[in-house]
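User: Need the bound-state model for zinc ion:
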Amino acid sequence: MALSIKNHNLYSGASKVPFIKSPNVGGMLSPKFLIIHYTASGPDADIARFFAQESADVSAHLVVRRDGSIKQCVPFNRVAWHAGKSQWTGKDGAHYAGLNNSSIGIEIENWGPLKKVGTRWVSWRGVNVLRSKVVEARHKFGTPDCGWEAFTKAQFEATLAAARALCSAYKIEDIMGHDDIAPGRKSDPGPAWDMAAFKANVNIEAEKQTIVSKSAMRGSTSSP
Ligand SMILES: [Zn+2]
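Assistant: Bound-state model below.
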């Protein structure tokens, strides 16, 4: 799926991805980071619709459902309320506190941590998750071992396509998990999200584009 960005909206080909407007927004945003989240919800909850309610008091720019479909809730040049109390040190040593003001938030539909009850894995809501869809792992910040709902391949690919589009439209310096910017307080996206593979795939694409543009430049300078 090739995605692109026009007027701070996400497009799939010539059509805008469904936009479910959230009223929970701040001021203007020049995004420097992408923050990956899980929704801590199952397929019965439409999180984009939840963000559309003022009473929710939270939002994110994008929501990626389990089938890989994407909805946008906030334009990419406006602050969304996804990070809460958070901090990060940028590659240039700059300190960021309250990452809502510098980042794009991507929520991926996933239960997050699961509890073992007898032989079953259940979500915090008591919903069963198939054993084949459970990743048993310890969170990098040391929370006890537990199960984590696996993300789907469709989600990984859709999020990758969105991240590539965002990185080519904005000067994105880095991609972090909510757990990276709020360690101890937040555990999303957690060990089921392969952040290393995700970042490598986004960067590979960016490097390819640089190589292409460099060779295009060489081509134009060397042509008679
Ligand atoms: Zn989060």
